[in-house]
Amino acid sequence: MQVAGKETSQKQWVELQLLCRGQTGKNRILQSLMAFYQKLQPQLQQQALPLVPDSVLNIPRIIDLVQLYEEVVNKGGAVIVSKNQLWPSIVASMKLKIAPTQLEQLYTTWLAAFEQHKVFGKSGAQRRSYETIATHAEIQATTSIRYTPLPMVTKRLKTHRQQLTDLGVLHRLVLALDSNLPDHLEWALNQLTVLSYGNPKDSDCDVLFAHTPGLLDALCRQLESVSEKKSIQLFAQYTSIAEEQEHLLRVLNILRNLAMVRENEKQLTQHTILRQWLFKTLSPVASQSSCDVADDAEVRDFAMDIILQIGPSYQPRLNVDEWTCILAPLIMERPRRSQALKSLDLISLCLQNPTKPQLQNHKLFSLVLQRTVELLSRNRQDSLLIEDDGQDNAGMYDEDDDDVGDNDGGDELDGDLLPYLSSTRPWDSALSPTGGERIGANMGMIFVSRRDGANDEAKKGDFEVRDLALLNLFYLSESDDNIRLWIARQPSAMEKIAMLVACGRAETARLAIGVLANLTQNPATKPFFLPIESRLLKVATADANLSHLVVSIMAEAYTKP
C-alpha cells in the first residue's frame, strides 16, 4: 500500500508539472516548492495531493498548488486573506466546489510554511506585532552620525559585500578620531598608520579618501587642534608639549603616506583647510615664533613632503605667499640640506608643468637664483648647507664606481633609467612631464658614471644637490630671453656650468650642456661664452660621447653673429 501511495504521489506531481509546462513563472514556483518539500518537509512530498471537485465538470481533480499559492500571495498572503475573509473569492476564481474553510485548511497544510520561507527567509516564525519592517528605500534615506550615508546593501556580488565591510571599518575610524576619547583616538591612529603604508603588491589595499567620507576632514581637525594648542578634552591625557608634538607627527605621517597614493591627489589638492595649514606651518614667521616647540623642524619636513606630492597639481596655482614659503629655505644663511633639496625638487616639479609659474616676478627670485648658482659647486665639506646627520657622506659614492667598473661600454648609461641622457631622444620629449621618469636625483637615488671618482676631489661633490640646482637652471633657461640673460650675468655662473660639463659625470655633463644650449638662444648671452671657450674645447676634443653636443653649442655661440 505504501508503494502504491508513493507511485500515486509521483504521478500527481508529474501531472502538476504538465499543468505548469510553458509557463516560466509557474514552473519556477513549482521547482522551488518541490525543493522546499525535499529539504524541509519530505513527508508532504510522499503524500498524495488532495483531490477537490471541479465546479464546472463536477469531477474530482488534484488541486493546483501553484495557482493556489499565486492567488493567495497576490492578495497579500494567508494572514491578510484570512483577516479580510477573501477565501470565497479564491474558491470562485479557481472554480472549485469546496468550502472556503476547507481550502484555508489545505493551504495551511501544504503551502503556509513555503510562504513563510519565501517571504521571511529560513525562519518560519511569525513576526510580532510590535516589530516594524523598514524598506530598502527608507534605510537609504536615513543618515548615520556625521551625516554620512549608509552603504548600499546587495546580495549579488561577494566583492561588493567585502567593500561594504571595509567601508564600515573606515567609517568607525572617522568616528573614533572625532570621539575625544583617548583610547579610541589611539586605536584610530594606530590603525591608520598601518593602513597608510598599503601593500606594494596590491593597490587595492590603499586607503582612498573618496571611499571614506569624512576621513580627510577628521585628520585635518587633529592638525588644527594641536597647532592652536586649545585646552580641550582630546589632549587631557597629555602632560607635555612633546606628547602633543608626537601626536601631530603621527597625523602628518599618515597624511604623507596617503598623499603618495595618486587617487588621493584630487581630494588633497581641493582641501582648502589642509592647504592653509601646510603653508602656515612653512611660513618664516611661524618658524621663528615656534622655536620653543620640540621637533618643529620635523613638522616642517612632513609638511614639505606632503606639498612635494600634491603641490604641482594645486588649482588654483601657488600664490605669492605660498611661493615665499617654498623659496625661504634657499635664501637662509645656512639652510639644512634636506630643506634645500625639497625646495629645489618642488621648484623643478612646478617648472615642468605646461603653465610654468612666473618666478621671475617674485621678490625673492634674484636671491634664489644666486643661491642656485652657488649650489652648482656644492661639496659635502663646504659650509653652504648644514648636513642633517652631521657626518661626512662623501665616501658613499665609492661603491657606485665599483658597481659599474666592469662595464665595457664606457659612459653609456641605461636610457630607460635616465631618459634625458639618451642623445637619440629629442630634448623636448625627454624633459617633458610625460617623457618618462623625472630628471635629477629624486627620492635619494643617484646614478654615478664610470669616470666619476677618478680623484679624491670629485668624490666630495654633492651630486644630489648639484643635479637639482642644475635642473632648475635648465627649466628656467627654457622660459624667455630675459631669464637666459639673467642666468648668464650671475657671477661665476658660466664658469660653474662649464666645470660641470667637464666634470666627467655623464648625466651631469649632458644636463649642463642643455643649459648652455638654452642660453645660446639669446644672442645677448654670447659674450659670456668667451671665458669658457677653452674649457669647452678641451671637452670637445677629449670626450667622444659629448663632443658632438659641445661642438654644436660652440658653433652656435662663437660662429654666428
Automatic annotation (TrEMBL):
What PROSITE patterns does this protein's entry cite?
Answer: ARID
Q: Does the keyword Protein biosynthesis apply?
A: no
What does the UniProt keyword field contain? Chromatin regulator, Nucleus, Transcription, Transcription regulation
- ARID domain: which residues? 23-119
Could you confirm whether the keyword Transcription regulation appears in this record? Answer: yes
According to its UniProt entry, one GO biological process term is: chromatin organization
Q: Could you tell me which Pfam families the record lists for this protein?
A: ARID (PF01388)
- Entry-linked InterPro entries: ARID_dom, ARID_dom_sf, ARM-like, ARM-type_fold, Chromatin_Remodeling_Comp
Q: What is this protein called?
A: ARID domain-containing protein
